[in-house]
Design goal:
CATH topology of one domain: Leucine-rich repeat, LRR (right-handed beta-alpha superhelix)
CATH architecture of one domain: Alpha-Beta Horseshoe
Structural class: alpha/beta
Shape: globular
Largest sheet: 14 strands, parallel
Number of strands: 14
Strand content: 15-25%
Distance between the termini: 44 Å
Helix content: 25-40%
Protein name: F-box domain-containing protein
Length: 415
């Protein structure tokens, strides 16, 4: 009979790659024969988030046998909680900086690096920045709580990461042009920017005829004030767009010069306000609306305007059960392309039953093939048990399926 130990080493390593880190460590404790393979897997993808002592102990462990350990490290993530217990980064413990610099300098195979408190780390140990510059195989780089001085490493890097995330450290940031640091990164495919002001992201100065980042397919913007027209020009081939908390500026004369919106988008995740103010009117395959659609008629009006403008095939949204029947009737009429509807309902069991009876019939004439409903039950004193919750779900599935003849896939869950 074949057992785990008789499997070819390469095949075994590939199998172990599907295990979570904790499972890999547990497996290493079961057998001397499996120890080496399991440990190699466990230290290949590492997240440090507990304390400064954890960072120090990890670095010391890896440096104790660099030839066999550091060569296995492929992805390293260190969160802000690994340096400080609260959000005050200036009083964090960065004493592990020298050891971390040694680890990064001796990890040639590192593919992904995510660092919080980057500005303070660089100040505590300047060798960290040089170590990052020397990494040759980085595919993903995420630097959080940065200052302009941190950006100096980008033009000097040996690697060409396809994914880049930058989050500015808000306090004490003076004027600078982020665009000048990113201009040479024309190979970027995924870009995530957070906390930059309009003066930092000077996209209007780019050449109209030659967009600077044609390879970017996924773009995430958080807390950034920027002209939407400039974004369309700078990233003309975006397919996945996510934005939160942006002080968005609508189309201006520059937008008319650049030609308006994208031809189409695969996925957009944003609030109704942002979608409206950015004047996104192109067809979207999957639209995720951030925020809750409430009983407020203005919110409902704006939501209908947005979804009608982009005509999604898949629509995901959180909605109150008190939203009236007319909204649902108009929604069904406004999106003829809609095939998949994902809903999050925050309600109680009584309102849920009423919602099913009143709202679901409005979807009878739609062409929805997939309907997913997650109900966040808020019963204060009569919250259903797991068994009663399951029975409630089962009792609702059949009426749902009968009410909407076009449905081929139905998912209903409570929590």
């Amino acid at each position: 009979m074949t057992n785990l130990l008789s499997i070819n080493g390469d095949v075994l390593y590939n199998i172990l790659s599907f295990l979570p880190t904790r499972s890999g460590l547990n497996l290493a404790a079961t057998s001397h024969a499996l120890y080496a393979e399991a440990i190699c897997h466990a230290i290949s993808v590492v997240t440090l988030s507990n304390s400064p002592e954890q960072v120090t102990e990890f670095c010391a462990y890896m440096l104790a046998d660099p030839a066999n350990r550091l060569s296995q490290l492929r992805a390293l993530t260190i969160t802000s909680s690994a340096f400080c217990e609260n959000s005050i980064l200036s009083i964090g413990d960065y004493s592990s900086g020298p050891l971390l610099a040694d680890v990064l300098a001796q990890t040639p195979g590192l593919r992904s690096l995510s660092l919080a408190c980057t500005e303070h780390l660089f100040q505590s140990e300047p060798r960290i920045s040089q170590a990052i510059i020397s990494l040759a195989l980085l595919e993903q780089l995420k630097l959080y709580h940065i200052s302009p001085s941190v950006l100096d490493i980008l033009p000097k890097m040996r690697s060409k990461p396809r994914t880049l995330a930058l989050s500015v450290h808000a306090s004490g940031v003076h004027a600078f042009s982020l665009s000048s640091y990113l201009t040479h990164l024309h190979y970027l495919e995924t870009l995530d920017l957070s906390g930059f002001s309009p003066s930092h992201v000077d996209l209007q100065a780019t050449d109209v005829a030659h967009p600077p980042w044609p390879a970017v397919r996924s773009l995430s913007l958080t807390d950034i004030g920027i002209h939407s027209s400039a974004v369309v020009h700078a990233f003309p081939n975006v397919r996945d767009l996510r934005f939160w908390g942006n002080s968005a500026h609508g189309w201006d004369m520059l937008g008319l010069q650049f030609g308006g919106c994208w031809p189409s988008l695969d996925h957009v995740h944003g609030s109704i306000y942002e979608l409206k103010s950015w004047c996104i009117t192109c067809p979207i395959s999957w639209l995720q609306l951030d925020g809750i659609i409430t009983e407020d008629p203005i919110v409902q009006r704006d939501a209908l305007h947005v979804v009608q403008s982009v005509s999604p095939v898949t629509l995901s949204m959180e909605i109150r059960p008190g939203v009236n029947v007319s909204f649902w009737t108009r929604l069904s009429e406004a999106i003829p392309r809609l095939r998949c509807l994902e809903l999050l309902l925050v309600t109680n069991s009584t309102n849920l039953q009423e919602w099913m009876e009143k709202i679901i019939p409005t979807l009878q004439t739609s062409n929805i093939q997939c309907l997913t409903i997650y109900v966040d039950l808020q019963d204060d004193h009569n919250r259903p048990t797991e068994i009663s919750g399951r029975r409630m779900v089962e009792s609702l599935c059949a009426p749902l399926a009968r009410a909407v003849p076009s449905i081929q896939y139905l998912s209903l869950a409570t929590g």
